[in-house]
Design a protein that fits this description.
Structural class of chain A: mainly alpha
Radius of gyration of chain A: 27 Å
Number of domains of chain A: 2
Radius of gyration of chain B: 24 Å
CATH topology of the largest domain in chain B: MetI-like fold
Strand order of the largest sheet of chain A: 1-2
Order of helices and strands of chain A: HHEEHHHHHHHHHHHHH
CATH architecture of the largest domain in chain A: Orthogonal Bundle
Distance between the termini of chain A: 60 Å
Largest interface: A-B, 108 and 95 residues
CATH architecture of the largest domain in chain B: Orthogonal Bundle
Largest sheet of chain A: 2 strands, antiparallel
Oligomer: heterodimer
Number of helices of chain A: 15
Shape of chain A: flat
Number of strands of chain B: 0
Helix content of chain A: over 70%
Shape of chain B: globular
Order of helices and strands of chain B: HHHHHHHHHHHHHH
CATH class of the largest domain in chain B: Mainly Alpha
Distance between the termini of chain B: 41 Å
Largest sheet of chain B: none
Chain lengths: ~325, ~290
Amino acid sequence: MSAVVEKAVQPVQGKTVTFRSRFENLKKQVWKNKISYLFVAPFGIIFFVFTIIPVVVSMGLSFTYFNILETPKFIGWQNYTRLFLSDDVFLKSVKNTFLLAAITGPIGYLASLMFAWFINELPPKIRALMVLIFYAPSISGNVYMIWQVMFSSDAYGYINSTLIKLGIATEPILWLQDPKYIMPVIMIVVLWMSLGTGFLSFVAGLQSIDRVQYEAGVVDGIKNRWQELWYITLPNMKPMLMFGAVMSITSSFAISDVTIALAGMPSVDYAAHTVVNHLIDYGTIRFEMGYASAIATVLFLTMIFCNKVVQNLLRKVGR
Amino acid sequence: MRHRKLNTKRLNRSLGGDIFSIAVLVLFGSFMVLPMIYAISNAFKPLDELFMFPPRFFVRNPTMDNFRDLFLLMAQSWVPFSRYIFNTLFITAAGTAGHVVVASMAAYALEKHRFPGSKLFFSIVVTSLMFSSVVTAIPNYLVMARLNWLDTYLSLIIPAFGYPLGLFLMKQFMETVPDSLLESARMDGASEFRTFWTIAMPCVKPAWLTLVIFSFQTLWGNTGSTFIYSEELKTLPYALNQILLGGFARAGVGAAVVLLMMIVPVTLFMVTQSSIIQTMAKSGIKDD
């Protein structure tokens, strides 16, 4: 009997010994590389405090009732069951967010790639100008407010007055109040601003491909620019495609400023309410921090999940 | 000679395809640029033109009235307007400088040193590019409250040091610094910090210009309204947004504000474009 026990203990002891020696080894390694750790430390600490801790805290708070004044009270999965089973506005915001992300994400991404590819053929001076024109809307602060003037609901709005003049519409269309039109208008504005960091990455990636490969491609029987794109250009740009996808997915799930500026908060009949709008509503207006954290956690997991799925898809490019 | 000829020849390009791609660029280029031109033209419109029916796209009698009104409005504000400008300049300068130094140091070690945990740390940073900062807004507020940084410049400056995108781009660009260059500096007895600062940093100038521009763009648009309450600590975008909220009565001034907010980042990008493109050529996420 005792022999059996000893036998069972033996390997465990062996494990602790190797674990301890491993730990000692690691400690030595860390000490040897202390300069490297000192270099990383300032960024690491700030990144940890303002990015990692908040994600963890948010997940923790999502299981509590917390209104900032009282200490958080643990309530299990209640916030989540409330979100998915009884919060109709949240479900609507999820629908809107997925609609926005599913349409503006891929279109914006493909448009970035296509424009970057077309621009790449131009002479350098014109290329620089075109890059500026396409990239500018995404960095111009709140210039998207101009769309509010253009889509203004009265006859003074540029688009309404043009439509009336052309005889297409007989009376001004309530672009930003009519639930039928709000989402398409927002999608247009989001797409207008969607040529951002990913687009720059594509422009740069295209320029850095070695011309020799294209020449070799001609020898190997590539006949037109589409074959060249699929067999040479895209496989060479795979890392940029990954980067662009991350940028585009992350930003298309986080749309909120544009909907607030154009459609208001809350928008008519919650027609343009996104998940981030819902998060802002509970986090900064109603101060239901636990509930807002649950929304943030759902959003966080969705973003990571979509990114991983798309990265797996992109691995197949050029194969 | 023959080699040269081959280099300048455009391979696999048909005339039809060229016409198609240029037509697409012109069409969508106008879609991109027209609202911007409209914004610029609006800023110079006198009030009667702003409310003209039917509305006109281009300004007919350009005037500086809107800018004059903006400055008059600024002069009347409760907190001197120069204070908002100072706040934004200070936060942007301090945040950007700190970000470039802190992110470059980390990037240098991650790219040029081998040490336990470096791969893991970098993959966490890359993962953090995959979610937006709105996700962390609420706990961030709690962290600021804990640190007693609410209503101070620190709450806007310090987090800017840790933007993951900057570290990511810098680390990728550090690949271009030849190891032999660093090795020879170390052989000459330079400390690791000195090697980083005097050898590596000058080599990655395009990258830190890029970090400057990106962090500038983020900070420039930062209204700071969640962390800052005191009027005299508020930023320029905040003050300008307040003017924008003035509605019809301030339509002219509002148009001037929109132009001001857009002109600064666009001009900066124009000047630094080639450095940024050079950096972005290394921006890919490698699959290993």
